[in-house]
Amino acid sequence: xxxxxxxxxxxxxxxxxxxxxxxxxxxxxxxxxxxxxxxxxxxxxxxxxxxxxxxxxxxxxxxxxxxxxxxxxxxxxxxxxxxxxxxxxxxxxxxxxxxxxxxx
Length: 104
Known about the structure:
By secondary structure, the protein is α+β, with helices and mostly antiparallel strands. It contains three helices and four strands, in the order ββαααββ.
């Protein structure tokens, strides 16, 4: 059994708005747990989504697949080339590896 487990994760870059106090608390929480603000937001949302029973039931319905996307997704600059003006981007993916140490 390998000692390291490597999981490929794809990330998108998106813009959301929030109030200043929440943004400050995200940064403060990130400092306390020694993580990035992005990780704090991602994990917090995943936690809420997994714990909300009504939301989990909604995900099982046909309506869940018909929800219009309102998240503003930005293209990630790759290979030194930026997004071309006038081109609409559906999503940007930034592959990242996460490593977890498995105790033997």
